Amino acid sequence: MNREDLSTLRIKFGRFDWEERRCLAEAMLLLVLAAVALRILPLGLLGRIAAAGPFGASPPTPERSEVLTWMVGWAIDRAAKRSPLRALCFEQGMAAQIMLRRRGIDSTLLYGIAAMPGSSRPIRAHVWIETTQFPVIGAPEPGVFALLATWPRGRRAIWADCAA
Questions:
Q1: What is the rounded CA–CA span in Å between residue 120 and residue 82?
Q2: pLDDT averaged over the chain?
Q3: What are the Microcin J25-processing protein McjB C-terminal domain coordinates in residue numbering (predicted)?
């Protein structure tokens, strides 16, 4: 990144309010940590991390919960585009799940696979996050993915009609 790019980034970052800035910084940090964790930790441990919480002292009001959920999705999307490490759906899902649960918002991380006949990659995996209100990130097209796991365990997909 050259000096001009840094200057432009500072100007753009300065347009956000403090809550948005904190959310973006947290998203970037968690995306980097998630990228590292996915390379060194077993899937079972990652699932337990994703299922921890919610940590908030008390759940936010429904209106505030909707605003916070939207802000987390927005921050993850923006930070993923600028992450120095890989930030695909699994990294984004882990970061979003932790951010939501830190804010006292109950969410579910869903992990599914789809057969991709005729593709160079015969199986495609995908992670997405849902709250009781709406999907946050990575909502797949209905019926495409077979659900393999959810964190917390036992939850079913609310918004996506997963293939059976």
A1: 28
A2: 82
A3: 31-141
Q: Do the beta carbons of residue 128 and residue 92 sit within 8 Å?
A: no
What are 109's strand-pairing partners?
129, 151
d(CA 148, CA 125): 10
Question: Is the pLDDT at 33 greater than 80, yes or no?
Answer: yes
Domain boundaries, the chain: 3-151
130 within 8 A of 151, measured Cβ to Cβ: no
Using N-to-C axis directions, what is the helix angle for 43-51 and 18-40, rounded to 10°? 150
Distance of CA 69 to the CA centre of its chain: 11
Among 139, 55, 57, 138, CA closest to 99: 55
Q: Containing H/E element for 123?
A: strand 123-131
Helix axes 18-40, 89-102, angle to 10 degrees: 130
- Interior/surface letters 119-143, b for 16+ CB within 10 angstroms, e for the rest: eeeeeeebbbbbbebebbbbbbeee
User: ∠161-163-164 over CA atoms, to 5°?
Assistant: 115
pTM of the model: 0.81
Model pLDDT for residues 53-83, shown as the tens digit of each residue = 777 667 888 888 899 999 999 999 999 998 8
